[in-house]
Amino acid sequence: MEQLASKITAWVQKNQEKYMRLSQQIWQYAELAFQETKSVQALTQLLEEEGFAVTAGLAGIPTAFSSSYGQGKPVIGILGEYDALPSLSQKAGCNHREELVPGGAGHGCGHNLLGVGSAAAAIAVKDYLQESGQEGTVIFYGCPAEENGSAKVYLSRDGVFRGLDAVFTWHPGSNNSIMGEHSLAAVSVVYRFHGRATHAAGQPHLGRSALDACELMNVGVNYLREHMIQEARIHYAYRDAGGAAPNVVQDHAALYYFIRSPKISQALELRDRVDNCARGAALMTGTTVEILPVDGMCDYLPNHVLSEVLQQSFEATGAPDFDETDRQIARSFQQQYPAAEVEAKVVAYGAKFGAEYTEMFRGKPLQDVVFPLRFPTTPLFGSTDVGDVSYVAPTAWLNAACYAIGTPGHSWQLAAQGGTSVGEKGMLAAAKAMAHAAVTVMQQPALLEKAKQEHQKTTGGRYVCAVPDEVKPHIEGDF
């Protein structure tokens, strides 16, 4: 393992300046969901130069692509993302709010690092296949619109990941660890009510209020909360409040709901109950309701066999190699955060990974060791479209430290650090670990067989996409 780690490290390091430049390039593009054309062009150019065959437009999505190298089995997939978030433009390394582009997008979730790090891992696996002459295939999947669009759901529904023996992915974070938690499954639905407009004072009896229907639906769902499992979550927002005039009975109004549960089957069952609240509200108000499924993601299923391989690989290749300059950058941000929030983060390290880690990182700006592997029973109270991939093929995921301890997710502070050496060093560490894990399972087919057996047992060999076939990939706000 030590010899392999040295080779993987050398293969990644020989191109690391190129990877850092590309990460900066995509950071500057900061393209939103399904609009990542420049980012895709930059990534595909890199991969084609390395001898990968690129297939564009997966599942009918212009910014989704795959790039493969090698032939035959095993087939290892590596997932990459590159979409940004709105309104998070921020100058790199700047620890106070200063937009790079006024009102512009920014990489507030580090996907500039994610995409390039995964591509670097795939290229290192290619180097191994070239040197060893071993049969096998590595495929990098360019997955757009993770933030607002859940493209992996549509790729999974379209069979893009079918036939993979293993999948590896990663995400920028504030610590170095393997993702052992299940995430929550989620479905999202727009409820659009239609009523009858009239003068609210002169002829109120002729009106049928779509806004009243929304209000009553929300009341019904609030009563439903007492009668659902504790781990479930329901959130809503008004998509349309029916207009600004109070003396007009609103003939249109709409709600946007997110419905989450530990398992996709539970989320779909809960969605049916929320649908009935909408139907009941329409019945009470004499309105009609359109129920428009928008999105849906399966819960993430960490494959224990592959997670253990990835843990060993991460330990072999090592955590990010931060220096004092990196620590100064991270410290300049961390000092701006509420002290209680930073303390809560290091206390959480101790609760999850061992009490010694709280003391180890109290007062430190960066987390620079690989935490031990844990498989918590409490789910991660969030959702990811990687969940659908994990139902299709055995999947493992690592987090790599790319920003200061205590940095909030989806923030301008995160975007700022993702454009510095701090983020880049986390990216390179992730690339080495994933490449090492991919080569390890290529060399040991028995591990892949065990991973497949576990996957069959966990899923029952069944993947149900929560998004109906008639729903197509969409940009947020289409509904």
Summary keywords:
single chain; 479 residues; alpha/beta; Aminopeptidase; Alpha-Beta Plaits; 2 domains; 7-stranded mixed sheet; 4-stranded antiparallel sheet; 15 helices
How does this structure look, described?
This protein has 479 residues and is an alpha/beta fold. The chain folds into 2 domains: 2-183 and 299-459, Zn peptidases (Aminopeptidase); 185-297, Alpha-Beta Plaits. The protein is built from 15 helices and 11 strands. The protein has helices at 2-13, 16-29, 37-49, 111-132, 151-157, 210-224, 264-285, 304-317, 324-334, 339-353, 356-361, 386-392, 412-418, 421-443, 445-459; strands spanning 53-56, 65-71, 75-80, 136-142, 166-173, 177-178, 185-194, 233-240, 252-261, 288-297, 395-401. It has a 7-stranded mixed beta sheet, with helices on both faces. It has a 4-stranded antiparallel beta sheet with strand order 8-9-7-10. Helix 2 packs antiparallel against helix 4 (111-132), helix 4 runs parallel beside helix 14 (421-443) and helix 6 (210-224) packs across helix 7.
Concise synopsis of the structure shown:
The protein is an alpha/beta fold and 479 residues long. The chain has helices spanning 2-13, 16-29, 37-49, 111-132, 151-157, 210-224, 264-285, 304-317, 324-334, 339-353, 356-361, 386-392, 412-418, 421-443, 445-459, and strands spanning 53-56, 65-71, 75-80, 136-142, 166-173, 177-178, 185-194, 233-240, 252-261, 288-297, 395-401.
The coarse silhouette is globular
Unreliable stretches: none
CATH class of the largest domain: Alpha Beta
What is the helix fraction of residues, given as a range?
40-55%
Structural class: alpha/beta
Q: How many beta-strand runs?
A: 11
CATH second-level architecture of the largest domain: 3-Layer(aba) Sandwich
Integer average pLDDT: 97
Q: Helical region count?
A: 15
The succession of helices and strands, N to C, reads HHHEEEHEHEEEHEEHEHHHHHEHHH
**Biggest sheet: strands side by side, in what order?**
1-2-4-3-5-11-6
Radius of gyration: 24 Å
CATH topology of the largest domain: Aminopeptidase
